[in-house]
Design goal:
By secondary structure, the chain is mainly alpha-helical. It is 68% helix and 0% strand. It contains 6 helices and no strands. Helix 4 crosses helix 5. The protein is elongated, with a radius of gyration of 24 Å. 11% of the residues are buried.
C-alpha cells in the first residue's frame, strides 16, 4: 500500500517521531510532507493492532486478489469472444485471426494467445 519510500526509511522516520521529534520538523528536515508521516504512523498503528483498519499485509492480499480477478475476467471474456469467432468454421489459421480481432477490440493479445494455445510471436 505504501509506495514511494523504502520501508526502512519510513521506519526510521517513525522512530524519530516516536523519540519525541515533531512531525513538522522531521518532515522539513527530510523534505517530505507532514501528511506522509501521519499516514505512515496511522498505517503502523493499524499494522501493530492499536487501531482498526486493513493491515499492510491485508492491503497487499486484496490488491493481489483484485489483480487475479481482473486476469480471470479477461480470460473469460477472451473465451467467450473466441467461442463466437471460432464457431463459424474450423480453419487452422482461424485462432490467429481471432486473436487479431480480439486485439483490435482491446483484449490483450498475449493473453488471448495463451488462452487459445497459439504462439504470441506474431503479436
Amino acid at each position: 500500500m505504501l509506495k514511494g519510500y523504502p520501508p526502512e526509511f519510513r521506519r526510521r522516520v517513525l522512530d524519530l517521531v516516536a523519540a519525541g521529534k515533531k512531525v513538522s520538523q522531521v518532515a522539513h528536515d527530510l523534505g517530505i510532507s507532514d501528511q506522509s508521516i501521519y499516514s505512515w504512523r496511522r498505517q503502523d498503528e493499524i499494522d501493530r493492532g492499536f487501531r482498526p483498519g486493513l493491515s499492510s499485509k491485508e492491503h497487499a492480499e486484496l490488491a493481489a486478489a483484485k489483480r487475479r480477478i481482473h486476469e480471470l475476467e479477461t480470460e473469460l471474456a477472451i473465451h467467450r469472444r473466441a467461442s463466437e469467432l471460432l464457431k463459424e468454421r474450423s480453419d487452422p489459421k482461424r485462432p490467429l485471426w481471432a486473436v487479431g480481432v480480439m486485439a483490435d477490440e482491446g483484449l490483450p493479445a498475449r493473453t488471448a494467445c495463451r488462452v487459445l494455445g497459439v504462439s504470441s510471436s506474431g503479436f
